[in-house]
Amino acid sequence: MKFIETPLAKAFVVELEPFRDERGIFARTFCKKEFEQIGFDRQIVQINYSLTRQKGAIRGMHYQCPPASEIKIVRCVQGRVFDVMVDIRKDSPTFLQWYGMELSNDNLRMFYIPEGFAHGFQACTDNAELIYFVSAFYSPELERGLRFDDPAIGIHWPMPAGEVSSKDLHCPLIDSNFKGVAIK
User: Fold this and answer.
1) Which of 49, 63, 132, 156 does the annotation list as catalytic?
2) What is the reported pTM?
3) Residues 37-66 pLDDT 10s
């Protein structure tokens, strides 16, 4: 695996290094020893799956507050998505900056999203499937979200927003009271 720094501190693009032969490919998607190189010292406690049926649909921007803050390792296993992370760490020099890129079953890239980031994506194909490796258990009482179209963030989605859940549409816009999350 190759770990490529993003403009957001401690966030990485992970490029898989597949073995290819006449049968196809084989690639390791997680190795604790290799992830330790970028400071990952947690356990994976959940592996989540999502299927987004319609091209253009947006999921996000979701995060969990401490003490349930989570690190996510996200991989698209079918189709294509434009995956986005937003730095919401209170004292970060890249506070409220975002980074996004296409993840697909073909490009063999993943995102390593640290604690203190919101995450979401837009499906660029019908039937886009993602797998998330997560370092904290889901805690509904600590779940929060940012609006995918919040002008304070200014995410440039690749296409007009399609289907968005009611929950995601009702996330508050960022105002002067938003201080981000404190991460140790």
Assistant:
1) 132
2) 0.95
3) 999 999 999 999 999 999 999 999 999 999
Instruction: Break the chain into its structural domains and give their ranges.
Output: 2-169
Identify whether 62 is a catalytic site residue.
yes
The CATH number, out of the four listed (1.25.40.10, 3.40.50.300, 3.40.50.2000, 2.60.120.10), of the domain defined by the range 2-169: 2.60.120.10
Q: Is 132 a catalytic residue?
A: yes
Task: Give a three-class secondary structure readout of the chain.
Answer: CEEEECCCCCCEEEECCCEEECCEEECCCCCHHHHHCCCCCCCCCEEEEEEECCCCCEEEEEEECCCCCCCEEEEEEECEEEEEEEECECCCCCCCCEEEEEEECCCCEEEEECCCEEEEEEECCCCEEEEEEECCCCCHHHEEECCCCCCCCCCCCCCCCCCECHHHHCCCCCCCCCCCECCC
Instruction: Give 73-85 pLDDT, tens digit per residue.
Output: 999 999 999 999 9
Among 62, 63, 112, 119, the one annotated catalytic: 62
